[in-house]
From TrEMBL:
One annotated GO molecular function: molybdopterin molybdotransferase activity
Enzyme class: transferase
Cellular component aspect of the GO annotation: cytosol
Organism: Verrucomicrobia subdivision 6 bacterium BACL9 MAG-120507-bin52
Keyword Amino-acid biosynthesis attached: no
Statement: the UniProt record of this protein carries the keyword Oxidoreductase: no
Protein name stated in the entry: Molybdopterin molybdenumtransferase
InterPro entries: MoaB/Mog-like_dom_sf, MoaB/Mog_dom, MoCF_biosynth_CS, MoeA-like, MoeA_C_domain_IV, MoeA_C_domain_IV_sf, MoeA_linker/N, MoeA_linker/N_sf
């Protein structure tokens, strides 16, 4: 069987370049991937300005009584330097002339009508000098970068209101299984609630993709083929098939994909959970046949589908973290590489991983506490230090 690392390499080779770009507004930019570096079109700050409320004087003005001659507000051009023995009232953010001196309001006191007494000499650190943050042409945000509130705010400050970002990968999700019913229904005997649909929908929200279509298609081969064919007409980047990827009587994914022009690249992965896994390609569409059990779904998405989504967006694959194994369930050696649900935490600044119990790949009870997948090499027991793939931003 194909190893996990071999699947990683194959996905990387299938997505050598990120997808197309588009310009969007800043209000749409959250969690999008910036594809052009953000550069300053002017010095930052663009002029000398005050960092405090206070008084503008000459840089060599001694501590003494001076005349207050005017008030200067933010948004106005810098005033000329006041004559020796005089001061101008200044508010935070106001533009300042070159060679200015600045006195904090707290370091003065009234000294009669139109006069104040300077209790200290001017403090040059109170002036935010032009270009002290960055110079014109500096790159303040490299590409690719995942845009978050802070970086979006930075773009706004630079006047970049239509950033060029990766187009969101287009995903189609088809769910097989005649036994599945909607979660808001009470299942009859022999039926179960469909949780793979909401699992995929929420995971795609977390990793920025457009879910073009999501449909429950049962087990009928003809209907399954028709749903796949119609889905491909929407030109998805990724076709996700839940179930039907093994070798049972109703597992039609492989043969239907071949009929629709896909090349099957692999049918099994040496991984636990998630062994029956299909990877296929047809021109610019990748198809992933995920095992039907929800825990296998969760693992295969984070190992493989997530990797493809990130690469299509222009981001590197997620990093693996090193953690200390702490007591939890016992993980025995298995011929297949195991990715065990775990809870990542910290102890005195060190990352820890606690394995969570699961009975089989249909057992969802551990997922509520899962924020990482603990990697256990084939034929080995889990031991410290261990390798962990976070399943939430870390």
């Amino acid at each position: 069987m194909t190893t996990v690392n071999q699947v990683f390499a194959q996905i990387d080779s299938l997505t050598p370049q990120p997808g197309e770009t588009e310009a969007i507004s800043l209000t749409q930019a959250m969690h999008r991937v910036l594809r052009e570096p953000a550069m300053t079109s002017e010095d930052q700050p663009p002029f000398d300005r005050s960092s405090t409320d206070g008084y503008l004087v000459r840089a060599d003005e001694p501590a003494k009584k001076v005349r207050l001659i005017s008030t200067h507000s933010p948004g106005q051009s810098a005033p000329p330097l006041p004559p020796a023995g005089s001061a101008i009232r200044i508010l935070t953010g106001s533009a300042l002339p070159k060679h200015a001196g600045l006195i904090m309001q707290e370091d003065t006191r009234p000294a009669g009508a139109d006069f104040i007494e300077l209790l200290k000499k001017p403090d040059p650190t109170l002036i935010r000098l032009q270009g002290s943050h960055s110079r014109k042409g500096s790159i303040l945000l490299p590409a690719p970068s995942l845009l978050q509130p802070g970086s979006i705010t930075l773009l706004a400050s630079l006047g970049i209101t239509q950033p060029k970002v990766s187009r969101l990968p287009r995903v189609v999700h088809l769910v097989t299984g005649e036994e599945l019913v909607d979660p808001n229904q009470n299942p009859a005997h022999g039926q179960i609630r469909d949780c793979n649909s909401i699992l995929i929908r929420t995971l795609l929200t977390s990793f920025s993709a457009t879910l073009v279509t999501q449909q429950r298609v049962g087990d009928d081969r003809k209907l399954f083929r028709q749903a796949c064919r119609l889905s491909l007409a929407t030109q998805p980047d990724i076709l996700l098939l839940s179930g039907a990827s093994s070798v049972g009587d109703h597992d039609h994914a492989g043969s239907v994909l071949e009929e629709l022009g896909f090349t099957i690249l692999l049918r099994q992965v040496s991984v636990r959970p998630g062994k029956p896994f299909i990877l296929a390609q047809n021109n610019n569409t990748l198809a992933f046949g995920l095992p039907g059990n929800p825990l296998s779904h969760f693992v295969c998405f984070h190992l493989f589908v997530r990797r493809a989504l990130l690469r299509l967006s222009g981001l590197p694959p997620p990093p693996f973290l090193s953690a200390t194994l702490i007591p939890g369930v016992t993980i025995t050696a298995n011929p297949r590489e195991t990715w065990w649900p775990c809870h990542l935490g910290s102890d005195e600044g060190s990352l820890t991983a606690q394995p969570l119990p699961w009975r089989d790949s249909s057992d969802l009870s551990s997922l509520a506490q899962t924020n990482g997948l603990l990697r256990v090499p084939a034929g080995q027991e889990a031991r410290s230090p261990c390798e962990v793939l976070p399943t939430i931003p870390w």
